[in-house]
Amino acid sequence: MNEAKDVFLSHNRADKPWARELGRRIELEEFSGRRMTVFLDAWDIDPGENFVSRIDEGLAQSRFVALVLSPEMLASDWCRLETTATLATDPMNRKGRLIPLLLKKTTLPPILSVFNYIDFTGDNYEASFLRLRAKIRGERPPRA
């Protein structure tokens, strides 16, 4: 059994460089006197490991699941499976565990269109990142 993470980054391989950079940035931040942690397949699934089992563990053990939304992600069976697994135990996202991150403009499917997302499509990456950091820390979003 592996250690719990703060955030599971669900993404398509087309968006992996962006997800990797976001994960790196999250892990530079602190929460409750420690560095925040991210589950990213490239970092947390070793060669020879059963990746389906590791993804299942990562989803179960992460405090939040961040969906990196793009047309490629929405077309991915694996990403749909990760989304479904997350929503299966909390379809209304009452626990707030699911965090949609809009990376590329796209039409969201009805099941995701009802959730407020953090918009990373514009020029203000820093403001979007601060909203995400606040969510992970359990803080109110910045008012700026």
Radius of gyration: 14 Å
Do you know the CATH topology?
Rossmann fold
| Total of domains | 1
Q: What ranges have pLDDT less than 50 throughout 5 or more consecutive residues?
A: none
Question: Beta-sheet strand percentage?
Answer: 15-25%
Secondary structure blueprint with pairings:
Blueprint (H helix, E strand, L loop, with lengths): L4 E6 L5 H11 L3 E2 L2 E2 L2 E2 L1 H4 L6 H11 E8 L1 H4 L2 H12 L9 E5 L7 H4 L4 E2 L5 H13 L7
Parallel strand pairs: 1-4, 1-5, 5-6, 6-7
Antiparallel strand pairs: 2-3
Short account of what is shown:
This protein is α/β, with parallel strands linked by helices and 144 residues long.
Description:
This protein is of the alpha/beta class. The protein has one domain (5-137): Rossmann fold (3-Layer(aba) Sandwich), CATH 3.40.50. 41% of the residues lie in helices and 19% in strands. The protein has a 5-stranded parallel β-sheet with strand order 4-1-5-6-7, with helices on both faces. The chain has a two-stranded antiparallel sheet with strand order 2-3. The protein is globular, with a radius of gyration of 14 Å.
Main features:
single chain; 144 residues; alpha/beta; globular
